[in-house]
Specification:
Blueprint lengths: L5 E6 H4 L7 H15 L4 E6 L9 H7 L3 E4 L6 H15 L4 E5 L13 E7 L6 H7 L3 E4 L50 H25 L1
Parallel strand pairs: 1-2, 1-4, 2-3, 4-5, 5-6
Length: 216
């Protein structure tokens, strides 16, 4: 390795999460860290799998070109293996270390060469690590899971109500349908009333004619 070959050390649980995160979350955050780090000689992540038999982390890391180093669950176990690998790289000539973590244990890498630190905005970073990295501490926006477009998706199996309206054709103004006029329900609405009135008049006239004839 050359002195300016960069090694990216990813403290997985510190920057992604340790409670068996979703694959989309792993992919989005690791990709953001790789992009921010720039060209590297190689990349390695240390993590403690919750269940080695059902571990999606190693597969996603391999897909992204990151070597994985599973460790037994325990305090700072991932930190120790990453520091061990940093010394391995140092013995082979590496002098440029980029660490994705806020853990103060990595401050000692400043003794091996140039230390760069990647951390999320609002993430807690150890004071010792801040001092060791100096101007080489970079804050990154925490990305959402890959493919997430709706912050509050509808529950699975239930479709949200359709509140959209068809877009009017170009050059035409969209108007609401006119309310139906009472006569629209039946254009002959007046016929029953007229029939009743005329029938009554006819009966009255007939009765008067009958009375006059009887008087004669």
């Amino acid at each position: 390795m050359l002195a300016d070959d960069r090694v990216l050390l990813i403290d997985f649980e510190n920057v992604v999460g340790g409670a068996q995160p979703r694959e989309s979350l792993i992919r989005s955050r690791i990709t953001a860290l790789i992009t921010a780090a720039g060209p590297t000689h190689h990349k390695i992540a240390g993590y403690a799998p919750k269940d080695p038999r059902e571990d999606p982390v190693a597969s996603v890391l391999a897909e992204l070109g990151v070597a994985s180093w599973p460790v037994p669950r325990g305090t700072d176990a991932a930190d120790r293996v990453l520091l061990r690998h940093a010394h391995y790289a140092y013995d082979r000539g590496c002098r440029l270390f980029t660490v994705a973590s806020g853990d103060g244990r990595f401050a000692r890498l400043a003794d091996l060469g140039r230390l760069e630190v990647l951390a999320w905005t609002e993430q807690t970073v150890s004071r010792a690590l801040v001092q060791a990295a100096g101007e080489h501490l970079r804050r990154l926006d925490r990305p959402p899971p890959a493919g997430a477009t709706d912050p509050d998706p509808a529950p699975r199996g239930r479709r949200p109500p359709d509140t959209t309206r068809a877009t009017p054709a170009a050059g035409r103004e969209e108007t609401a349908p006119a309310a139906a006029h009472p006569r629209a329900a039946g254009s002959d609405w007046w016929r029953p009333t007229a029939t009743a009135v005329l029938t009554g008049i006819g009966m009255g006239v007939g009765q008067r004619l009958a009375d006059a004839a009887l008087r004669r």
